[in-house]
Amino acid sequence: MSSHDAIRAAYVLGYPIHHSLSPILHNAAFAELQIPARMTALAVEPERLAETFAGLRGLRFLGASVTLPHKETTVPLCDELTTAARTIGAVNCLQLDGKRLIGHNTDSDGFSDALAEVKVSLKGKRVAILGSGGAARAVAHGAREARAIEVIARRAHDVRWAVTWPWNDETLLEVFARSDIIVDCTSTGLSPETELEFVDSLPLAALRKTATVVSLIYHRPTLLLTKAATLGLTTVDGLGMLLHQGARAFALWTHREPPIEVMRNALREALSQRAG
């Protein structure tokens, strides 16, 4: 590499953004494949998002990831949306085509890739999703080959491919008893203070012994998965979805096969260091 100018820029946009693992994930992959690119995190306040997009169009950048709170507000700022991004109503990956920004949603395939990797099949299964925000819509899209998808939410939002139920004890019990896969898309696991009450309210004992419980949280073992494991249930944390949505984005930007194990190890090392 002859100069710093030869390095293609990639970005992750969010606010706050200091916690993002995207630069670690992608920079490990760039280094492994000797791609002259570097991802940096950009803290973009919501009121500056449109201005930032205007600036991006003038740059010859490789690609960009989009994280909270911008996934939904990015949608109208794109020049083109993929079917997945349009259906889900959220964008987590930007691809530059000339000066046109194409919005993708790789969270959807990231979810199905993560389950496939651990040999959990969605085909013909009954899937229950807790929560109805952007993550839940991405999961529902990723699980669309399932036999049935049911969403249980405190606030009613229409989720395509799914039947939505109100959040109450009776509904939880009925849905859990007939489900093969439970996916927690709520933010409850992010806070230990609210996690205990939440997990205690879930009728995990009603699940079949062959059921799988999935949490999208990846930075620490959640109480939900710990309790599910003690009941002999299969558990899947959010690291695989984080990894595979990033791998899908990497492939879009570089047209190269992503080095999955290198990316996985980079994530695990970063999480280990943060855990102290």
Please give a handful of descriptors for the protein shown.
Rossmann fold; 276 residues; 2 domains; six-stranded mixed sheet; alpha/beta; six-stranded parallel sheet
CATH superfamily of the largest domain: Leucine Dehydrogenase, chain A, domain 1
- State Rg: 19 Å
Q: How many β-strands, per DSSP?
A: 12
Topology as a string of helices (H) and strands (E): EHEHEEHEEHEHEEHEHEHEHH
The tally of helices reads: 10
Number of domains: 2
The level of helicity is 25-40%
* Assembly level: single chain
As residue ranges, the low-confidence spans are none
Can you tell me the CATH topology of the largest domain?
Rossmann fold
Mean pLDDT: 94
Large-scale geometry:
globular
Distance between the termini: 35 Å
Biggest sheet, in brief? 6 strands, mixed
The CATH architecture name of the largest domain reads 3-Layer(aba) Sandwich
